[in-house]
Design goal:
Strand 1, helix 2 and strand 2 form a beta-alpha-beta unit. By secondary structure, this protein is of the alpha/beta class. The longest helix has 20 residues. Strands 6, 7, 8, 9, 10, 11 and 13 form a 7-stranded mixed β-sheet that branches. It comes from Manganibacter manganicus.
Length: 346
């Protein structure tokens, strides 16, 4: 074959590819949507959807949420969507979240998902919706999200999760009488507080009683370790430690350091690598998941659909999948052993 013939053949192939792209023939997507999760609508009009997902970075939970966000970006990148993870700041409170939302709107994002720090965020949700910005929340269920015009609030039913954690602990301890040390994020953090109250309610009528109302650790594994160590040294009849928020593996490390894995049960939250490692080595009894990946992915896809097609799910307040992981089922629920983004099931 001559060089001219090769050039002519190559040119023809390039022309065919260009024509196919121009007319949408054989369109390829960067990544297929994940089964059993919200599916992106067909963006026939080529609407540009810019989605900001706002969170924080003070404990491993956020890594899992960001993974969901990044995966949503891969799925939507060839469908006219862009999803960006934004760290709001150091303080997890209503003003910090509001500031991050305003900044995202100023930067031109037409869909904004955010960690809801309290009902106070809903005032701004209403204002953003009035400006045609699709709004969605995650981590804690607040009816005001729906009332303010938000399209989704995907979060664990935290009170129910706390009650279930108490039931699992009672079952694990058996007929033994003893005290439980409670470690929270902050008493002003709504999700953590709902889990604490649900747990205390769930213990009523059993032989287990809280040492006190709880101590704050602000999602820090180091502070959780210190609080757990204090409970261990000051409470001879301690049978369990219950951590409501980030860093529960710190409590597991304290129990392991004291050599009390057999006598003190640690219960925490989130299917993070650190918690799973502690469950596998026996220093943590169990952890409740909240579909951390889905809090990033599901919210981002739903916001895309709202921007592109003005589509709103039938149910705005959506309780996240919340399963309890122990050594008995860890292999079934460990995200590292499942396809990316697979919905956790038992």
């Amino acid at each position: 074959m001559t060089n001219l013939a090769r050039w002519a053949g190559s040119t023809a192939r390039i022309s065919l590819i260009a024509m196919a792209a121009a007319f949408g023939v054989g369109q390829a997507y960067a990544m297929d949507p994940i089964a059993d999760r919200p599916q992106p609508v067909d963006n026939a009009n080529g609407t540009k959807a810019r989605i900001a997902m706002i969170g924080f970075a003070n404990n491993p939970y956020w890594v899992s949420v960001q993974k969901g966000v990044d995966t949503a970006n891969e799925v939507l990148s060839s469908r006219g969507g862009e999803v960006k993870w934004i760290v709001a700041g150091a303080n997890i409170d209503v003003p910090t979240v509001d500031q991050a939302i305003r900044a995202a709107a100023t930067q031109g994002y037409n869909g904004i998902g955010f960690f809801i720090a309290g009902e106070g965020n809903c005032t701004l949700v209403k204002q953003m919706v009035a400006k045609d910005v699709a709004m969605g929340a995650y981590n804690t269920l607040f009816p005001c999200v729906e009332a303010s015009g938000g399209v989704i609030d995907y979060a664990q039913d935290q009170v129910a999760a706390g009650k279930n954690a108490a039931a699992e602990l009672i079952k694990a301890v058996g007929d033994k009488e003893g005290k439980v040390g409670i470690i929270v994020s902050q008493f002003t953090a709504p999700g953590s507080e709902q889990r604490r109250k649900g747990f205390v309610e769930g213990l009523k009528g059993s032989k287990l009683t809280p040492v006190n109302e709880g101590v704050e650790a602000k999602d820090s594994a180091g502070a959780t370790f210190a609080a757990a160590k204090d409970f261990i040294t000051s409470t001879p009849d301690l049978v369990a430690l219950y951590a409501t928020a980030g860093g529960p593996f710190g409590a597991a490390q304290a129990v392991k350091a004291a050599g009390k894995q057999d006598s003190i049960k640690v219960i925490g939250y989130d299917f993070t690598p650190e918690n799973i490692a502690a469950i596998r080595d026996g220093s943590m009894y169990g952890a409740t998941g909240q579909d951390e990946f889905g809090q990033g992915y599901n919210v981002a896809i739903t916001l895309f659909n709202a921007v592109v097609a003005k589509q709103k799910p039938e149910q705005v307040l959506q309780p996240a999948i919340s399963l309890f992981m122990t050594k008995d089922n860890v292999d079934q629920l460990d995200p590292a052993k499942l396809p990316v983004g697979a919905v956790p099931k038992l």
